[in-house]
Amino acid sequence: MNYDTSQEPTLVLGGSGKVGRRVVDRLTARGVRVRIGSRSGEPRFDWEDRSTWGAVLEGVGSAYVSHYWDARPGAAETLGSFADLAVESGVPRLVLLSGRGEEEAERGERAVRYSGAELTVVRSTWFAQNFSEDYWREQVQGGEVALPAGGVPEPFVDAGDVADVAVAALTDDRHIGELYELTGPRLLTFTEAVLEISRAVGREVRYVPLSIEDFAVAAGDQGVPSEVVEGLTFLFGEVLDGRNARLADGVQRALGREPRDFSDYARDAATSGVWNPTTTRAA
Ligand SMILES: NC(=O)c1ccc[n+]([C@@H]2O[C@H](COP(=O)([O-])OP(=O)(O)OC[C@H]3O[C@@H](n4cnc5c(N)ncnc54)[C@H](OP(=O)(O)O)[C@@H]3O)[C@@H](O)[C@H]2O)c1
After folding, report:
1. Rounded to 5°, angle at Cα 267 from 240 and 164
2. CB-ligand 1 contact for 66 (6 Å cutoff)
3. Radius of gyration of the chain (CA)
4. Dihedral sign from CA coordinates of 248, 175, 2, 94
5. For residue 156, what pLDDT is reported?
6. Pocket test for ligand 1, best of 12, 34, 38 (most atoms within 8 A of CB)
7. How far does residue 67's CA lie from ligand 1's centre (Å)?
8. What is the position in ligand 1's atom list of the atom closest to the CA of 14?
9. 24-35: buried (b, 16+ CB within 10 Å) or exposed (e) per residue?
10. Burial per residue of 129-147, b for 16 or more beta-carbon CB atoms within 10 angstroms, e otherwise
11. Which of 23, 81, 98, 215 gives the lowest tally of CB atoms within 10 Å of its CB?
């Protein structure tokens, strides 16, 4: 059974984030009414303030659930509590974004499943868009991406593919009960990914390997908030150890097509001007 777009709105948590805003755009284009759940949404939603949870769930038919940092200790309990409240509030249909290879994120998946929700899990590897819409955009603009990523390959996935799978799951009941592990079609080391970006922008952008310790100090000096530094050092120090250095077929299974290649992402992001040294736009 497909979702009736004339019915209640769909709640999109993290609806201003890299995947969330694409989910919002795609649902809106299909005529699905959307409510964004974030600290800047209306009503305001804050994962750290449970008194804000009930209002965003009121009257919605389904929800895309994206915690702001699902690998953070305790996130699993928070996700479970939110899912319990959603089910109690009459919102049993949930699509959960989860991080691949992250123990806490997988605990979160189990906590949400335990709520009894009609669940689809979208378990994703690193987004290509981290280079253009988040952490590393300014480094690309500056011509040097300095990270503690070593030589481990990563199958970067396009945030647009993640959003396509989430929207398919939100709008088609055939995806209930599925766990889709999402990767791109190719393994790339950070050196190779930055080389692709360098080719796409037509100027030199170098990857510079850093130790975890030097990275944490440099990020702190650049004013990156300590909790973000903590999250990134966890991701680079623990999750990027080769455990995700394999391709998965979630995009094909959910959508019946191949995932988007990193070179297509890099070409389009370069064309948008997001990496031009003076621009401030997001791709
Ligand atoms: N980035 C990746 O490569 C990647 C890959 C796999 C999984 N993940 C996971 O996906 C999730 C989203 O990551 P992302 O990188 O896509 O994040 P993002 O683009 O930075 O988006 C974060 C979103 O969460 C909202 N938010 C932040 N703090 C919040 C709070 N306390 N309460 C409510 N909303 C809050 C933000 O909006 P406001 O600022 O308006 O609140 C924003 O909409 C995380 O759990 C992450 O671990 C990320």
Report:
1. 65
2. yes
3. 19
4. negative
5. 98
6. 38
7. 6
8. 43
9. bebbeeeebebb
10. bebbbebbbebbbeeebbb
11. 81
Ligand 1 center to 202 CA (angstroms): 31
Local confidence pLDDT in tens for the 283 residues of the chain: 455 555 799 999 999 999 999 999 999 999 999 999 999 999 999 999 999 999 999 999 999 999 999 998 999 999 999 999 999 999 999 999 999 999 999 999 999 999 999 999 999 999 999 999 987 999 999 999 999 998 999 999 999 999 999 999 999 999 999 999 999 999 999 999 999 999 999 999 999 999 999 999 988 888 888 888 888 898 898 889 999 999 999 999 999 999 999 999 999 999 999 999 874 554 4
Angle (CA) 148-97-231 rounded to 5° is: 30
Give CA–CA dist 189/242, Å, rounded. 11
Structure tokens at 233: 């050092």
Indicate which atom in ligand 1 lies nearest the CA of residue 39.
Answer: 41
Determine if ligand 1 sits within 6 Å of the CB of residue 70.
Answer: yes
143 backbone φψ class: left, alpha, beta (φ>0; ψ -120 to 50): left
Does the beta carbon of 206 sit less than 6 angstroms from any atom of ligand 1? no
Q: How much of the chain is helix, strand and coil, in % rounded to 5?
A: 45, 15, 40
> According to the model, what pLDDT value does residue 203 have?
97
